[in-house]
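cron nightly-structures :: item 1 of 1
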Amino acid sequence: MDERTIIIGAGQAGLATAYHLTRRGLPCLALDAHDRVGDSWRQRYESLRLFTPARLDALPGLPFPAPAWSYPTAGQMADYLEQYVAELHLPVRTGVGVRRVRAAAGGFRVETTDGELSCATLVVAAGGHRDPWTPALAARVDPAVVQLHSTAYRHPAQLPDGPVLVVGASHSGADLALELALAGHPVVLAGRVHGQLPYGGVRGRISALLLPTVASHVLTVRTPVGRRMQPMVRAGGAPLLRVKPADLAAAGVRHVEARVVDVRDGRPVLDDGTVVEARSIVWATGFRDDFGWVEPAPLGEDGYPVTDRGAVPSVPGLYFVGLPFQYAFSSAMVHGVGRDAEHVARHLAAHLPARRPAAAAA
């Protein structure tokens, strides 16, 4: 077995893990299917900005190169990750997709688009195979209606003039509904809003100062409130941050909490019986994660791997980083993933006594 730890994914979770492993003198290699580090951010809608200010967007070992209270764009985040690899000399191989992970004697076999690799320890930092999800009824919508999943949306010019139905009222749905309304489209936003948190201005700065503490130390799997919140977060029920219901109303967005449940004469129908006349539909309906490609990983009732802060107790040598609410609300946030990565690296090092360098004990 290769003594390197293989890390699947070179986004913020994988790179933070690589940083903490190399800092401990443990050889590793991060694999990423994209051609460039940061491409997963470059493929998002053009107006996207991070929900946290730059002061909270740095990974361990390198400050984020932007004013502390600015909100970086997706492109800035992508470039930062590329800079992170270059300046910290992290071992990354791009353009290599992982198809399957199998258990093997002494470790794991990793089937990639560039052949098979073996390793004794493996960190999955790419989540599941995230398939954009739209309801089956979308196939019954009139073909003349343009339909996009939010992952395919880049800018308003992709859609024809006329009314737009945005389905899903979480972060991306609210962002896109507002942008489309400001671009001149009549917009209906369908979906339940799961509350809102302060963002921007004085209240937003106070919230941003408190957020790391609350998200990292209060909302964890070790507290009752955190354990109640974990399933809600994993089901996609996050509160709004940047775009508030008041912003949507001011822009002319018609927000309804009704769900799209049927199609009648080629038009979407809400659960209150309303038929929505739309020339375009944007499905901000999230993803379906599939972890079946990591064959050794036991899955819980929610479909996520069963871990103890990232370590899989029943499969020694197998780890996950970057899962939603892996340990805390902050686990899927840039400022929180570094802590999870450090914990995994520390656990991994402690369970490799024969290869653990003397410096790692410090």
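cron nightly-structures :: done
Residues 353-362 have pLDDT under 50 and may be disordered.
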